[in-house]
Amino acid sequence: MFAFYPLLSGLSLYLPAPEMKRVIEAYLFAADAHETQFRSSGEPYVTHTVATATILANMHLDADTIIAALLHDVVEDTDISIEKISQRFGEKVAELVQGVTKLTKMHFESKAQAQAENFRKMMLAMTGDIRIILIKMADRLHNMRTLGSVSSAKRWRVARETLEIYAPIAHRLGMRHFKLELEDLSFKAIYPWRYRILEESVKKARHNRRDLLHKVEHALVKGLAKFDVAPDHIVGREKSLFSVYRKIRERGVPFAEIMDLLGFRIVAKDISDCYHLLGVIHSVFKPIPGKFKDYIAIPKANGYQSLHTLLFGPYGVPIEIQIRTKEMDEIAENGIAAHWLYKTKSNVEGIQTQAREWLKKVADIQKSAESSLDFIQDVKIDLFPDEVYVFTPKGEILSLPRGASALDFAYAVHTDIGNHAKEVVVNRHSVPLSYPLLNGQSVEIITDPHVYPEDAWLNFVVTGRAKSAIRYALKNKVMQADEHDIPLRAKKNKPIVVIHSHQGMNLDFAHCCHPIPGDSIRGILNSNHKVIVHEFHCKHLQELVQKQKHGKWMEVRWADQIAGFFPVRLKVVGQTTVGVIAGVTREISEIGGDIREFVMRENLQAESEMDLVVEVQDRSHLAKMIRNLRRLTFVKRVVRD
Ligand code: MN
User: Fold this and answer.
1) How many CB atoms lie within 10 A of CB 458?
2) Which one of 21, 206, 374, 402 is separated from 390 by 20 to 30 angstroms, measured CA to CA?
3) Ligand 1 centroid distance, CA of 217 (Å)
4) DSSP H helical segments within 162-191, as ranges?
């Protein structure tokens, strides 16, 4: 069973037996699904998914992730559906597989350098669960390790993409091990000769300097031994081939100078020891002025923390020193993955939350915004919460502020396109101009020279550019009208339905999706002349749209002040213990929610599953309720259904 036993023995170090059983099932399922497929190397295809899972098992990822890694190519490459995976291995696994499949489908072919940054952002933003990125990274790492057997054109393309997209993502997530290996493998694939020559030179230089390295290390240890503070350990650092290459190419540093520099990492017990050791080292060896950097006080954008200093070392060689704690060292090597590694005892969700919090912190550093915002649990991780990335018909990427509508997009492309926007097609479906755009969508605007801006447009654009263009056009229209003394409105304005409360004569809220104030919504006029309000992404409505069975679109929006309560569906999963129902219902009523329906059953994992319909004021009310429910110790999951 192709390399499956090593994976199993690795997993047995940290996974309980029932989880192991699920992994074995997934392996058999994957082996069966890929039975007739082979890699370019001639090996059975499943060796690739096993290797991907093994990389993740080395980082101690949870069973769902390992299972999803084993199944990650099943949906893309065989005729097995995502529903089947959901039935066999659960919703969470299906979600992970789905996410990886989506990323695999995104193509990065020879995009301009300038676009690479947007692709990386989009990839991260499109991913709700960081584990999807980790699976994709492991997948790419194994593909890079086995690049030797594919055609040279493909090899070059994949390596380029790895260098431009995946290695920088690994860097952003602080995964240094991944980043260095991806870079070196790409370098080797793109410039095989340069790689070989450099590899040999580095080997030779290292050999020549081996004695010196030992002498310097000895001097360091001896120098420190006189003081009362002792480092945990000291290690010599070696530069990766690609980083040497980049220094030579991009900064013109001569090879000899790069190799002359010796690097050491000192791991200390705690933060105060780090500074103490720094002081001691500076008293033993002279520091080179202007080279000290305190990344402990001010972490790097990817969360990296360490003290850096450059010394006039013994024997006249400059030495680079990094000082940090063990924890900082783990983060420096593995970044986000460090949250899984070394933490075998915590539960999966605890780790997820920690990882998210870390990521959130990193995102905050990157934005250099106000510190320590309360992490909002019901928001999916989103490194770039203020932006959405969408495609133009030509495949270019535009970034817009979150909440931007299709009309904002039109104005972002060109003022004339905005001014004459008549129809919008998003992912091949026709939508209203007010449609709020989502990450990854392809947007096309159909213009008509007879269409002109209307007052109502100002209600659903958010970008300054669109607003000022519309105002300018409206003012001009008035002026023209004055000049020629003709009626102002040549074209009838479409009415906008503004929702002030849950009660409304000609208004109904769809029961499939239960929209609440704050949700993006759209309205449909049905055959009884009633406007039915749906949540924007209501699956039921999407089905109707696909079948062309929906009625006429209506512009709907929430009023600024809305009275009353709105029903919404919640699913709460908790342990089966006494007091679950009482705890959940008390929590809901304490925050002022009203329970309309309540159904409870036990699921296959012997958990209590509760389906509720509760009445809330709006989204933030609901968010607060979900947050409070999640704090209950016996509650495992809460989702809006
Ligand atoms: Mn794959």
Assistant:
1) 14
2) 374
3) 43
4) 167-172, 176-190
